Amino acid sequence: MELVPPLDPSSPEPLYSQLYRHIRAEIESGRLAAGVRLPSVRKLAAHLGISRTPVEAAYGQLAAEGYVRSKPRSGLTVLPFEPEFSREAELRSAKPSAASASHVSAPDAASNRSAEASSRGAVMANTNSAMSTADKAGSHTASPAPEVIRKIGLPEPIDFHYGDVDLDHFPYRLWHKLLGRCFAPDQRQLFRYGDPLGEPGFRAAVSDYAYRGRGVVCPPERIVVGAGTHHTIEQLCRLLQRTPYAADRTAIAVEESMSDGIAAIFRQYGYRLVPVRLEPDGIRIEDVYDSGALIVYTTPSHQFPYGMVLSIGKRRRLLNWAAETGGLIIEDDYDGEFRYAGMPIPSLQGLDPASGDSVIYVGTFSRALAPAFRLSYAALPPALAATAASALHPFDRLASPLHQKTLELFMAGGYLQRHIRKMRNVYQRKWTALVAEARRRLEPDFRIVGGAAGLHVLLESSGGVPEERLIGLAEQAGVRVYPTSVYRIAPERTGRHAVLLGFGGLSEDSIAEGIRMLADAWLA
Amino acid sequence: MELVPPLDPSSPEPLYSQLYRHIRAEIESGRLAAGVRLPSVRKLAAHLGISRTPVEAAYGQLAAEGYVRSKPRSGLTVLPFEPEFSREAELRSAKPSAASASHVSAPDAASNRSAEASSRGAVMANTNSAMSTADKAGSHTASPAPEVIRKIGLPEPIDFHYGDVDLDHFPYRLWHKLLGRCFAPDQRQLFRYGDPLGEPGFRAAVSDYAYRGRGVVCPPERIVVGAGTHHTIEQLCRLLQRTPYAADRTAIAVEESMSDGIAAIFRQYGYRLVPVRLEPDGIRIEDVYDSGALIVYTTPSHQFPYGMVLSIGKRRRLLNWAAETGGLIIEDDYDGEFRYAGMPIPSLQGLDPASGDSVIYVGTFSRALAPAFRLSYAALPPALAATAASALHPFDRLASPLHQKTLELFMAGGYLQRHIRKMRNVYQRKWTALVAEARRRLEPDFRIVGGAAGLHVLLESSGGVPEERLIGLAEQAGVRVYPTSVYRIAPERTGRHAVLLGFGGLSEDSIAEGIRMLADAWLA
Questions:
Q1: Chain A, window 259-298: residues with a beta carbon less than 8 angstroms from a chain B beta carbon
Q2: Which of A22, A403, B66, B505 could disulfide-link to A5, CB 3.0 to 4.6 Å?
């Protein structure tokens, strides 16, 4: 095997990215065939005369996207790649593949174990419980009684509440300054209801951002602004009511665990949810075919809550399903900005050979920025966008024009990409602190589940301790963790032995301290 | 007849208000019996040694609230008052009564004519077409072609768009300053999702405001914050799903013309709308009984779009219906702050003898302040409030905590009441300009329909010119007016001969100019 990537050290594109693109092209063209083993990191680095770091990063990205499979001590193997999107190819390649980057050790270990379980024909080990936008879980879980807190002498519990974001690094001063421009005499139209589809200037800025940041190909006139992901999903339900995808017991294929809020909205509109099994490389495409669904709702960049990435092979097969059946895919990219191993996974929407005809992409600023602005968006296929103006009732104008304008100015100044880069580092440090402490204190009694991405991880009890007991013990110790069972759509296949920890709003010190307290509570 | 009101000129309460309260108490106690004629304004003013103005104002208020009836040239007569809320009393008093204050001449003339039509057994003259939150109408009505605008040499049409508010008198500087306080280091929690029911401080301020401004009796823990009236209605639908008032083809009795957006939401949730006829003093209570509905949705302070006030007699009969049948009343007080004749009509909720057990009050800040903040609220009955925390999914947190906090500070400083007083004068001048010009230019070919309140009026063609033609002629002349048929729930009883004009966003000069242009277009 010869790998001769044309690396250009003077290019603004990082070496790892050049290397990743080259190998990916080799696989897609068939020059690197399925089953071929890639050279080890050490060997390729020496061969190319570069350090190991970019090689590791490129390999990690390829593994995360499902181009190669990583096995402990046997390196990376090229996976089958199906350019024709045929059902046969899909069925041929129905074996699961590992989803996570090889150097992300803790979650990786979990995925690999799951992959093994799965290849033995068993139900995936890390899909036996469920999870969320955990907004719900957070607000509805009882607080520890004040007596408990007094007894243990803590002012407040350490709260691994999902949906909390880091508020120490938000650019308050800059935001306030930009917001101030909305109060200029020539900006008074911002105090009205605003455009039902979103302010035109904001939609243009979002179109540009989604393309550059997430590979979403969508002109401004196909962007529809919402007041958070849930509201955007509601808008979509309303939009679809006048199409062949209308509700009335229509099936939506969903990941077997998913956001409970979004599930509630789909059901409220009269959709029937058909759970699709999760594998280490994302949803099982055979199940999608079998579901009889007209619509698939999925979180391909970072499955909620389990964290796996939908592999490139499955992405193409899912798009193929849509092309074959006339199906529609709703891609919920709720935290796609935050990936700590390799580059961000590009959106499914941008891969659509029908230039976005079959994918509705949903993005939010609740994690990249802050929830309080209540801003999200959908990138619509052309046919749906054409009817949006007449189909969306103006009562759906829930996103404040003032916040839209401020974020438009923020994006126009280049501040959003800069802020996301900064926050990616901040969250990566928090994630690393959590995973490192959990490996040290909780393994092997607990498995860490979830990719190296986003603002949450799962801890799963290897010994089968029920979720309620884990939560109860944690609360007594002054730590709040959250249930995962609330996110399960499928009938319970196994027990409930995992809890969800959101880490976005906690400091690294609090995270490590929280994990230590959990270890004391759970392993005592 | 002797009227000896204990007037106190040194009291902070205005004379007209003292006089109004005294006469109202006399009627409620039965000391002033049904059929008694009140002294003329001139006589009572002379008798009390005060000017005519407070007497006119007190009489206007009593007439608006349905305590007395005004007839041209025969003064005011006391109407029957039913303290026992019995069905028999209701049926006995089923004759319509005039709804508007006697000195509000133009709309009054319309009401009186309607009253006469109604007492002849005819269908109400001013309910033969329908209207809106007109957000919809506004955004969905085609703009005149650019050629038309160029031809008549106007830069833009005069747009009587409903939902637009006056933006020349908004306290931008003060608001920006208060908003700035949200950026203080101790306010970072405002950048999170916030409390699903609304921020506690904001709910307390709203409770206080609703009591003082609208007579709503509701402690903060029963206030639920929404992102505009439509969103609040959606929240209510979700809340009611777990109660005996759940949808599933349950009937809601609604005014035969109503907000199309709210109608769409009720229908989306699976409610069945049963139209109730409108009379000059509000909905026909017999129809409510006959509807078999569990819920009544009504706009008692200023019917949307026709503008009549639900009389005090009918308010009590409606509350009686609720008490007898276990029914629930949703009171939408969408513009109750702006009444130009007499005092604001107190809310139905505050009248509920069961201390708000059977009324859900819905208020909004979209008109009193500006739509862009997306803030509204519901005052819930105790039983419903008790379940709200668990029944309302956190995905319903759509009101930005930043806007909630700013408005809380605005209210705490006493600025909201002051702003509303100022805007009441501003809008009264606009309303007066519209009505005066319409009387001068359009009567008798057009009737002016709507109480002396709110931010819109209707113009109805006496000659039966269809709504579409009125809109088309207006557009050609460079004026935008809006359809009323979109608001009709009942099957069409008569034609569509009325258009809606929102005047909140236009200057007095533009309003007068727009009416002159309409007269030229319609009467040519």
A1: 261-262, 264-265, 268-269
A2: A22
Among A139, A167, A372, the residue with its CB nearest the CB of B400 is: A372
Q: β-strands A482-483, B75-78: how paired?
A: unpaired
The two tokens of residue A353 are 């050979």
Tokens coding A173:
């001063």
Instruction: Select the residue from B166, B304, B387, B397 to test the A interface by mutation, using most A Cβ atoms within 10 A.
Output: B397
How many contacts (CB atoms, under 8 Å) link A and B? 144
Q: Provide, rounded to the nearest whole percent, the portion of chain B with pLDDT above 90.
A: 55
Q: A435 — phi, psi (to 5°)?
A: -65, -40
Tokens 């690393």 belong to which residue?
Answer: A432
Q: What is the pLDDT of residue A494?
A: 55
Mean of pLDDT over chain A: 83
CB atoms within 10 A of CB B307: 25
Give A493's Cβ-side CA count (13 Å radius).
18
Question: pTM of the entire structure?
Answer: 0.77
At A352, is the pLDDT very low, low, confident or very high (cuts 50, 70, 90)?
confident
Across the range A147-170, mean pLDDT stands at: 76
Hey, how many other C-beta atoms are within 10 angstroms of the C-beta on A372?
26
- CA-nearest residue to A174 within chain B is B183
pLDDT in tens, B371-414: 999 999 999 999 999 888 888 877 778 999 999 999 999 999 98
Integer Cα distance of B244 and B267 in angstroms: 17
Helix (H) or strand (E) holding B100: none
**Separation CA B152–CA B161 (nearest Å):** 20
* pLDDT band (50, 70, 90) for residue B58: confident
**pLDDT (mean) for A118-144:** 34
Tell me which residue has tokens 């994990």.
A515
Per the listing, tokens 């009171």 go with: B331
* Whole-angstrom Cα Rg for chain B: 23
Give the integer Cα–Cα distance in Å for B119 and B286: 15
Summarised one tens digit per residue, pLDDT across range B474-484 is 999 999 999 99
Helical ranges in A39-86 per DSSP H: 41-48, 52-64
Tell me the two tokens of residue A52. 């190991």
Asked if B504 is an interface residue toward chain A (Cβ–Cβ < 8 A), one would say no
Neighbours of A445 (CB within 10 A): 15
